[in-house]
Design brief:
about 20% strand; globular; four-stranded parallel sheet; single chain; alpha/beta; four-stranded antiparallel sheet
């Protein structure tokens, strides 16, 4: 048994070295391609997301009218305002759930390229490096907690449709890697013991944590949180404050959040 464990460990190390070498080759290839086709857009070095003159009209209702702000790399940025002010509408424009009436939205994606978010469809935004949570919990309650995280990583698969259809060895490797990643994130969020539980019936505070864990599966540079403290009690809100800081620090992500709890906003936000 000891010999098998040692051999298995050595095999993992070798496989990791191969993957790292392949990643290095891909990154070099991406860098070479970027040199050939420089970005049409630019941002200051410290800015990750720029929203300029954003407008969103629903008929005669101006939900968002000429909003401009910058979100800097590595900061926790809070967007505040009364009910009905259009905060969630802003998020929906950034993530392309809504087609903005006007304005510009530029983002430095996970490949280091500045892109115009209006060029992408809603299901492609996650590939650029933007993840989000929702004001109302949007988990699949009929499957387990870890399966909810794995669902969030479906766009990350490199194995194509036919590879899934016939079950290629590369698919099985990807599935193992993603499952291990999901387990690490659940441990980070303190949800390891809930891994196999169905989402249905779990306490509201736990479901909120699961939704944040799901957003972390996307390897995002920017995580957008829509009222993450809604429905939480005081102790859960205090724990969330620390969790948001830990996510920023340990995952190296930038966080943009909408929140009504001004105690949380003033405690956790840089801007």
């Amino acid at each position: 048994e000891e010999k098998l464990c040692r051999e298995y460990g050595e095999a993992i190390v070798k496989e990791k070295a191969k993957l790292e070498a392949k990643i290095g080759e891909l990154e070099s290839a991406i860098a070479r391609e970027k040199e050939k086709y420089p970005s049409r857009h630019t941002l200051p070095d410290d800015v990750l997301l720029r929203v300029e003159g954003l407008k969103m009209y629903f008929g005669g209702l101006k939900a968002v009218d000429d909003l401009t702000f910058d979100v800097k790399k590595g900061e926790i940025f809070g967007l505040i305002g009364p009910n009905g002010a259009g905060k969630t509408t802003v998020f929906n424009c950034i993530t392309r759930f809504y087609e903005a009436t006007g304005g510009e939205m530029y983002f430095e994606n996970k490949y280091g390229e500045v892109v115009d978010l209006r060029d992408f469809k809603v299901h492609d935004i996650i590939l650029q490096g933007i993840g989000r949570t929702f004001q109302n919990i949007e988990l699949v309650k009929e499957i387990s907690v870890i399966e909810n995280l794995l669902v969030a990583s479906t766009r990350s698969y490199r194995t194509g449709f036919f590879g899934h259809l016939i079950g290629l060895p590369s698919l099985k490797k990807e599935e193992k890697m993603l499952r291990a990643k999901a387990q690490r994130i659940l441990k980070f969020m303190g949800l390891e013991s809930y891994s196999a539980w169905y989402a249905m019936g779990l306490p509201y505070g736990i479901l909120k944590k699961v939704e944040i864990a799901r957003a972390l599966m996307a390897d995002a540079k920017l995580i957008i949180m829509d009222e993450p403290a809604a429905g939480l009690n005081d102790s859960e809100t205090a724990e969330l404050t620390e969790t948001i800081r830990k996510i920023r620090d340990e995952f190296g992500v930038t966080i943009l959040l909408v929140e009504h709890d001004m105690g949380l906003v003033m405690n956790v936000c840089d801007t």
